[in-house]
Amino acid sequence: MAKFLLVDDHEIILEFLKGIITSMGHEVISVAKTGVEAIKEINRLNPQFIILDIGIPNLDGFEVIKRCPPSEDRTYIIFSSIQQELLKDIFHKINMVKYISKQEDISNIKLKLESYIYGDHSKLTEQQETSHLDDLVTNLSSRELLVLKYLSQGYRNKEIAKMLIISEKTVSTYKKRLMDKLGCSSMSSLILFVHRSNIL
User: Fold this and answer.
1) pLDDT band, very low/low/confident/very high, at 122 (cuts 50, 70, 90)
2) Would you tell me which CATH number, out of the four given (3.40.50.2300, 3.40.50.150, 3.30.200.100, 3.40.50.720), belongs to the domain 3-124?
3) Mind listing the pLDDT tens digit for each residue in 147-172?
């Protein structure tokens, strides 16, 4: 389970992000609305991921990153309306700074968060990652695991239904349940998750 600090001066954005992150099975350990609050919480909690808006009051996002630099155990995800191209010159030498536009829809936000969390194993220790995956697998029934296996192998609903002697509608129900439990917004992200995590 990845741990997040959210930094934005708009309550609606904080609640929006919190809903997405918790639905993916991760934890929001704190929120901050100013740069000063953010630095205090970073030093106090040492979060793995910090989702940060640039335009926050009382020290902007740039100053927060300057005072609490990213590291192998601390990744910043800039969540901003500022075009990514405008930020590249500033952050191109900093590997631990990522970017998500506030204009992205929920499915793309989830997909990018997933790639930042699972795509770089330096962000989660092996023990933390194994524990997180174990928790996810424990919540799946034997039938759900079987459907997930067939989906990851490229079988279609009709083929899976025939192999398991169930209806296509039931397969669709399993697919939706799997995406909900694993925090995936689409079939592509579900398959990506399976192949990256090696849970099967």
Assistant:
1) very low
2) 3.40.50.2300
3) 998 988 889 999 999 999 999 999 99
The yes-or-no verdict on residue 102 having pLDDT over 70 is yes
Q: Which CATH number fits domain 130-197: 3.20.20.30, 3.30.40.230, 3.30.300.20, 1.10.10.10?
A: 1.10.10.10
Contact 125, 166 (CB under 8 A): no
pLDDT at 40: 98
pTM: 0.59
Which residues does 6 contact at the CB level (< 8 Å), separation at least 6? 14, 17, 18, 21, 28, 30, 31, 32, 51
Q: What is the pLDDT of residues 48-65, one digit of tens each?
A: 999 999 889 999 998 999
